[in-house]
Amino acid sequence: MEAFRYHIYVCDQQKPEGVPSCSARGSGQVLEALRREIARSGLMDKVQITVCGCLDLCGRGPNMIVYPEGVWYSCPEPGDVPEIVRSHLQEGRLVGRLANMDEAAISAEIRTHREKVTAGLRARDASGAVPEDLTQAIQAFQQSRAILTALELDVFTAVGQGSTAAEAAAKLHTDPRATEMLLNTLVALNLLAKRDKVFQDMPASARYFAAGSPDDARAGLMHIAHLWRRWSNLTECVRRGTAVDGQEAGDRGEEWTRAFIAAMDRNARERAAQVVGVLGTDGVKRMLDVGGGSGAYAIAFARANETLHADVLDTTAVVPIAQAHIDKAGLAQRVKTRVGDLRKDKLGEGYDLVLLSAICHMLSSEQNRDLLRRCHDALAPGGRAVIQDFLLKPDKTGPKTAALFSLNMLVGTKSGASYSEDEYAAWLREAGFQDVQRMFLPGPTGLMVASR
Fold first, then answer.
1. Is 238 helix (H, G, I), strand (E, B) or coil?
2. Residues whose CB falls within 8 Å of the CB of residue 435, separated by 6 or more in sequence, listed in order
3. What is the mean pLDDT of residues 338-361?
4. Which residues of 198-220 are buried (b: 16+ CB within 10 A; e: fewer)?
5. Which strands make up the sheet holding 47-52, listed edge to edge?
């Protein structure tokens, strides 16, 4: 089957620093240029691009293979891409200066490379050195911390489209020497560019981290900066079995609350349409969003059904934030806010849908049992309760995101955790629900749905 006229494999193998590789020699930039040029030339339906692992010609990288001819190109730069697309893909002529034409020499070079790699791996294993992938996982916090510090200081807004280290330090009220060290590191992480001592934002950092961008995500990402401090206590939390400082979410101050709700709002807006699409709104006249945060889910349901009315229940600190989002959406007549404590308050009655999105992981098993009983009482006959959360496998060893999030609840709550599908199903049935089922969504969370 020929789904495409041409199929291009481009090596983008990531290797340790100092080891020759296509990625270190600019394969990422070549890939970006190739995708742009193919789109510009109207060849999207004729050319498939696949990123692949090592092609064993690391010293010649970046490397790509164009099929069906099986032509190996080495050392292309982004500026060479238009010629490759025009000559090879449109006119059927090889770009001879970049093509590897000596088959015997290439085969010999590949064999030599494989032998060196195999010998190196054996020597490393014999020495007892920690494998590279484990070392990188252990040291991953260093990159994360550098980026989080840049976000806390608002570096990307200060640097913008051009700033020296001294100028950025003056804006940020930071030490010039230390600021330059941080900026240089951000260049190494491809978040800043540097030319003649002048730094500037890269496209991704300008879009997502700098003030004034429509997609500025810094406010929500500050929640991760706050999590950093709590995760640094993980060892002691494991010893004690609970969060070290003992503070619940509502007691952590306005700055923490605003960052947390901004992060949750970004997640919710990304997933709300999927949730509404899977659940539907037929027969839903009244909805309750328990711990609804910014109100993003209630807003999405109200937009999907012009007759639907929703209540958002949350704390005194969060309700004004939700109300601002609802007012901005122009839905204040149909989406209302209500202050309440989801851990103990009666939730109301006569609802057709009660949503618990990213709530149950904050609570203990017994607290979830009690909450689901009150959700059952709040529903009209035939109404549905919906839980959206991380769902662990029965043995709780995965998925990885859900398992890590369980530790996030250990360092951040008194008794929260990620739970399994089986646990949620048992609690729902215990609370009196019927027709318990799991519904799958793309991404790290799933839905548990049951009816009264």
1. helix
2. 449, 450, 451
3. 97
4. ebbbbeebbebbbeebeebebbb
5. 47-52, 6-11, 63-67, 71-74
- Whole-angstrom distance, CA of residue 308 vs CA of residue 280: 12
CA dist., res. 243 & res. 258, Å (int): 21
Q: Considering only CA atoms, which of 215, 226, 334, 227 is closest in space to residue 266?
A: 215
CA gap 36, 277 in Å, rounded: 33
| Residue whose pair of structure tokens reads 């006119």 in the numeric block | 91
Question: Exposed, middle or buried, 375 (CB in 10 Å: 0-12/13-18/19+)?
Answer: buried
Q: Which two three-digit tokens encode residue 98?
A: 């970049």
C-alpha to C-alpha distance for 139 and 228, rounded to whole angstroms: 15
Give the model's pLDDT for residue 275: 97
User: Which two three-digit tokens encode residue 294?
Assistant: 């910014």
Tens-place pLDDT, residues 209-236: 999 999 999 999 999 999 999 999 999 9
Share of the chain above pLDDT 70, in %: 98
For the beta carbon of residue 70, count every other beta carbon within 10 angstroms: 7
Mean pLDDT of 185-213: 97
Distances (CA, A) of 215 to 65, 206, 210, 212, 256: 36, 9, 9, 8, 21
Asked whether 434 and 451 are in contact (CB, 8 A), the reply is yes
Q: What is the enclosing helix (H) or strand (E) of 151?
A: helix 132-153
Structure tokens at 150: 């840049």
Name the pTM for this structure. Answer: 0.84
Amino acid at 311: D
Instruction: Identify the H or E element spanning 424.
Output: helix 421-430
d(CA 285, CA 268) in angstroms, rounded, equals: 21
The token pair that represents 243 in the structure block: 């969060």
Residue recorded with tokens 């032998």: 115
